[in-house]
């Protein structure tokens, strides 16, 4: 029989016993059948029980059997104390689940290698620049730069250019069937370098990426192919149109690869050379990321050195093409430094924006887990107190210290495993839920969140650590007990109480920290969302519209006019893009012949009636008139007036800017309006803004055509959802070459600006709530335990006439002292922690006294509530009954 | 050599040997065989035979099988395995070496 049968025998212990017994009985029966005296036979045979035990030990793994017995016993204990067990398991589930969910997110976004060959050899070029606003980091460069760098490190590394994933309008049929898709321009040799094979057709090759515009081919990702085309292989050969270019689909990738931009799943890959020729030729248009795949055995440093030399040479050339740089800007330009960073996990803006957020969330979650551990340890220690006699008895009849510890640890492990399973289910649900909160619902961030061995290994390891953390205290206590004292019923109670008090202090400190940090995030979110925008977003819908060919402004006016007649529409105006959409247009401003200002000003093209519609007050002058064109007239905001006209009323004055053909153009100011926020970042003040007419003319006065714009519609009713499809249809009905690419309410756009802060505030609040509940339960447990432990003392005190108040103080004094100690510890660590996440905060200081007062108050209230029941129980102790029982 | 404890070291050897000659014996039969063949000199302590059998079974030297006898009673029959044969060879030669050595001491001391 092997180890395996011995393990199996552990599980069929009863049957094993029966079998052995039967064999022993058969022996005795045989002896009697041989004519021996039954009494003599039994005497000669000896104790069947002893022989059975010996045989049993030979036939199974004894340690496994004792472990099994411990688990069975532990399970009975769990079921006996249902409420405590449920509380412990639920809080463990919450702790382990939140940690696992946080791990899944961090792993998916920052750690998991891309599904490509040799991901560990993948790097990316980034640039760092110390400018007036501090250190700036970017990772894009221009196409000629990319080609030059690739040439210079040939032999040591392959460079792969990848554009930012863009969500573009495209169609597989007519214009009426426009849809959105994520598109990336990539180097033709990317698929080869990444070892990606086609599922059908063929993939792009180096030959498809040679001449600009020569190879209009597209490759679909497997994921997109499955979702959009139901894995139909006949898709190869079909065409799609993006803008004016028609691409032919030549194949579909195999495997899970969806581009290099973690958090975005690219559906369509196009050759780099199909980007428009001007962009390809420009040294100053930075639009692509450069991945480096090192050749085997090549170190990063020499490649980085080589690339730095190349970059410096490029900078020397580039500076010639840049005109009018101030010496300061020049110095800054040459200060830029190239770095080669590890990029096994891909590279995306989502990583940049959410790295810190996820780290902070992970720390919060970790704190909650520690609170859970302290809490459960306290509950268990208190429960173990009730089992001192049982333990003492076990020691007395010969159980070793280690056996006792094993018994208690088995129980802890049972809790951890049950908590782990429930936590796993929680993480299963929670991780995608959090990802769903990152971006607007119509364009969600898409992270691959597989439940593979990495996640299971993490959850398993976590459960183990947790068992060790919260199981250690009661196990130690059980194994270090002195049976003589315990059986007499009076072991010194203060030892465990101090252990529990220490845990209370730690728990309160963590609680305070979680509450404090959550408070900072909630305040940040509150301050950001209550930032004045300077305009009214009520009932505003933005119809971001594209046209097949650029259209004269008469046609744009015609569509706007038609929309005004739709029932439910109050007013319609036009602009290039919605307010706070994240897009901007900047220009240099020159006032009265001086040198151009250092800071570029924002420009925004708006139609007549736009200010009235957005409810932006006109301080002086007027709105645009129909016949006015850019660059003849401008309306400026307060910041503009402050910056260029010393705060004086600028109406009637003029400034110079750069016209459509880079010539200087004089613009007359016809209006002066209050500041309104057009940029998307709530953290920065409103910028100097010049509004210019929606229609424009060139130097010779010829009207310019326009291919994109936004109809800003204010509706009269609240039901924007019902009106949206009608508006979309009306646009196309008026002029078929117009197509609504995107339709968003203004409120929606503004919500999108604070997703990160909302996420932090929501999850912060959630964890604060959890921490407070857990902290309260923990305090209650400890107080309750100390009442039970000291009931004799309390009984005597009451009998000799102690006041209720004195008793209450007696029980709570120590614990409340611990609460105070914990709160101070929490405060100190909170202020320290807040420093590390300043970038996530807005207009809130960690040293602000209100920020500290709220967690203080909440903690004190929680402690008081937790104390009520134990104190009541203490003062209601009937001295007579108590002393009689004892 | 009537004492069980002096037989302790050689119990395995005896059981294996008996089973190598007569496969398919139950515990009582093994015990009787040892006693009979040794002319009642060697007596096995009845109860401790079974833990020994089970230990040898665990080691893979012997294997057991339940059968139902004509009397309707079940019996557990033992037989030698290949590993048991090898073990028997080893135990036998060790026994020979030990008795040889003991004899030499008795002769030459």
First CA to last CA of chain A: what distance? 55 Å
Between the first and last Cα atoms of chain B, what is the distance in angstroms?
22 Å
Q: Sheet with the most strands of chain A?
A: 7 strands, mixed
Percentage of residues in DSSP E strands of chain A: 15-25%
Portion of residues in helices of chain B?
A: 55-70%
What is the CATH first-level class name of chain B?
Answer: Mainly Alpha
Helix/sheet category of chain A = alpha+beta
| Assembly type | heterodimer
Average of the residue pLDDT scores of chain B: 84
Poorly predicted regions of chain A are none
Q: If strands are numbered along the chain, what order do they take across the biggest sheet of chain B?
A: 1-3-2
Query: Number of helical segments of chain B?
Result: 5
Which chain pair has the greatest contact? A-B, 25 and 20 residues
In total, the number of strands of chain A is 24
Q: Using DSSP, what is the number of strands of chain B?
A: 3
Mean pLDDT level of chain A: 86
Order of helices and strands of chain B: HHEHHEEH
Outline of chain B: globular
Summarize the structure in words:
The complex is a heterodimer of chains A (886) and B (109). Chain A is α+β, with helices and mostly antiparallel strands and 886 residues long. Helix content of chain A is 53%, strand content 17%. Chain A has 5 domains: 3-60, no CATH class; 63-112 and 349-485, no CATH class; 119-344, no CATH class; 492-533 and 753-886, no CATH class; 540-717, no CATH class. Chain A is built from 28 helices and 24 strands. In chain A, strands 16, 17, 18, 19, 20, 21 and 22 form a 7-stranded mixed beta sheet that branches. In chain A, strands 1, 2, 3, 4, 12 and 13 form a 6-stranded antiparallel beta sheet that branches. In chain A, strands 5-6-11-8-10-9 form a 6-stranded mixed β-barrel. Chain A starts with a helix and ends with a helix. The radius of gyration of chain B is 15 Å and the shape is globular. Chain B has a single domain (4-108), classed as Winged helix-like DNA-binding domain superfamily/Winged helix DNA-binding domain (Arc Repressor Mutant, subunit A, Orthogonal Bundle), CATH 1.10.10.10. The interface between A and B is medium-sized, with 25 and 20 residues.
